[in-house]
Amino acid sequence: MLYWLTALSDGGDFFNLFRYITFRAGGAFFTALVFGFLFGRPLINVLRRRQGKGQPIRDDGPEGHFSKAGTPTMGGLLIVGALVTSTLLWARWDNGFVWIVLFVTLAYGLIGFADDYAKVSKQNTKGVSSKMRLLLGFIIAGIAGYWATTLHPEALQNQVALPVFKDLLLNFGFLFLPFSMFVIVGAANAVNLTDGLDGLAIMPCMIAGGALGVIAYAVGRVDFTEYLDVHYVPGTGEILIFCAGLIGGGLGFLWYNAPPAAVFMGDTGSLALGGALGAIAVATKHELVLGIVGGLFVVEALSVIIQVLYFKRTGKRVFLMAPIHHHYEKKGWAEPQIVIRFWIISLILAMIGLATLKVR
């Protein structure tokens, strides 16, 4: 919205700064951060009063988690609120990619909110059925995937770019839509599975969001894409503003989610953030790079899949408990130790993902 202040500029004054994506990204970061600090404590107080017993704890979970009983959930409302407010304030409203990412974020946030509400109101860990969540998730992802395709240059429509290999595109044809749906739904559920320890999911989301923001800015500039030999996707640079808001809002939330957490993000936050990361990857034509940048989420999801499939075939378990962060809890690792080490892994993977921009 503030972009339109450039209409008051003569080209050499303060208002001219609003033309620059990097300036507005900085504004979005600080707006989201301040939003988180201002509304974090009031929101937690409201959630605690309304939820009473807070998020229900799994009976079969790690023993240390029973001490967290009574902690309110739905803290993702703080992240989504900060993220949406900062994006609407600082991004251009005539950019379709921004609206795609906002649409996915809000829609998946609503699914997560319904799930959190069902868990809290019924005081069980089931919530909305997994089939319904997946159905709604695929419908939203289908809309977003098709919408993104209509905004891509004709030469890139229904194409999947391979990292590292210069100018190599795979034409998925009509299969691109289901592929994009899988990317968005998979990212949302992978982040959701990762959100099991205080602070574990939010920092990797910020790291992945920052990396994808850099990628979005790079592929949205023709001079950068010519230098880096990556595909030019006009308009994606504005997504950097969304990503900056994600980092600012995430830091504001982490202030209250740091161990011992005063609030959990819940499915409201994890599904919204995961869906947003998937939507950004589809918009920027970096779906496969998301698997590297968000590699921690991939490992968490794979640990659950492997555990379930192996147990059904053999009756035995590969991990002491899945997702894999619970495996390390069972092995005796302290929760902060797991969280910080997983943050380090996430940062390393993000750097590798960014390196694919230059390694050709």
Strand content: under 5%
Q: Percentage of helical residues?
A: 55-70%
Output the radius of gyration: 20 Å
How many helices does DSSP assign? 13
Could you describe the largest sheet, including whether it forms a barrel?
2 strands, antiparallel
What is the total domain count?
1
Describe this structure in words.
This protein is mainly alpha-helical and 360 residues long. It has one domain. The protein contains 13 helices and 2 strands; from the N terminus they run ααααββααααααααα. Strands 1-2 form a two-stranded antiparallel ribbon. β1 and β2 (169-171) form a beta hairpin. The radius of gyration is 20 Å and the shape is globular.
List the helices and strands and how they pair.
Layout: H1 21-51, H2 76-90, H3 96-122, H4 130-151, E1 159-161, E2 169-171, H5 176-194, H6 202-219, H7 222-228, H8 239-257, H9 266-283, H10 287-293, H11 295-314, H12 324-330, H13 335-355
Helix pairs in contact: 1-2, 1-8, 2-3, 2-8, 2-9, 3-4, 3-9, 4-5, 4-9, 5-9, 5-11, 6-8, 6-9, 6-13, 9-10, 10-11, 10-13
